[in-house]
Amino acid sequence: MSRGNPKLSIIGAGAVGSSLGLALHKAGFPVVSVVSRTGSHAITLARKLDCRKASTNLRDVDSRTELLLIAVSDSALGQVAADFSESKHVAFKKIFAFHCSGVYTSNALLPLHRKGSTVASIHPIQSFPRSISPERMQSKLKGIAYGIEGRPDAIEHARTIVSRLNGKSVVIPRQTKALYHAASVFASNYLTVLLNAVYELSGLAGLKGSWAEIFGPLLTSTTEHTVRDSARETLTGPVVRGDLETIHLHLEALLDYAPHLLPMYTVAGMEAARIAKLSGRINRSTYEELLKHFRTFIKSIPAKK
Q1: Which of 77, 123, 182, 238 could form a disulfide with 246 if both were Cys (CB 3.0 to 4.6 A apart)?
Q2: Any bridge partners for residue 97, and if so which?
Q3: What share of residues in the chain are helix, strand, coil (percent, to 5)?
Q4: Quick one: how far is CA 277 from the chain centroid?
């Protein structure tokens, strides 16, 4: 990859490819080709990036490409890399190629590495909802962290790219990439699931008004305190108090109104008990009593139904 502003090609015009492509374009990287599985998506993105070449065929990746962003689904990544490595018209040794998968390492691009390309993974630690356009996503990308992984020379290239995006580089060890991505899923996907539970239960409880306005201050305060002081210090509620009666009332209410949320409540409760024990908030006897209560209740559900 040459110094200055390497010529960029993009494979994948979905939410991530479009948002990062637009950010790189704004950072000064000239886009010379856009390839996507859907032709209309490739054309739409190419127009936004002042790019004249849009296609659904990997053979149309511009021969001048020096920087290659591959933003396809995880399941398609290996095949795309293998297929593109068969190209005859590009100078692989001049290309720095990176993919955006959170779980796969740079080894997913080994076919390109074998052709002489420098390869890495650069994963933006941010969510890309379908409801938010690539243009609106630009403000959500400012100052975020990117999980980067690869060989030493690739890491240096990745740091440069992230710096140009005004981001922060976090080097991920190859052997723990999947664990890092699991943390990302907890921080985003599973947090969304928990918030949806609050939304559902507030409706079932017949609360008047916006669930976000009612529970927003609690959510914000809890998040702030946990980030600042740790979960062990912040955790409150019936589990920390060893209040089996309150917990049982919750379980009975969920069984009556939202049985689909029982597994999540139970697992979260058992984890809360583990954290409370580790922090010395409850003793081992109370911890074991809590676990026994959760397990006994769950096992009793088929008989009750």
Answers
A1: 238
A2: 68, 119
A3: 60, 10, 30
A4: 30
Length of the chain (residues) = 305
List helix spans (H) across 209-261: 211-229, 231-234, 238-241, 244-257
Q: Are 66 and 95 in contact (CB under 8 A)?
A: yes
Residue-wise pLDDT tens for the chain (305 aa)?
666 799 999 999 999 999 999 999 999 999 999 999 999 999 999 999 999 999 999 999 999 999 999 999 999 999 999 999 999 999 999 999 999 999 999 999 999 999 999 999 999 999 999 899 999 999 999 999 999 999 999 999 999 999 999 999 999 999 999 999 999 999 999 999 999 999 999 999 999 999 999 999 999 999 999 999 999 999 999 999 999 999 999 999 999 999 999 999 999 999 999 999 999 999 999 999 999 999 999 888 765 44
Residue 248's nearest CA partner among 269, 264, 231, 232 is 269
- To which residue do tokens 């740079």 refer? 106
- Adjacent-strand bridge partners of 33: 9
Q: Quick one: DSSP state of residue 165?
A: T
SS3 76: helix
Amino acid at 27: A
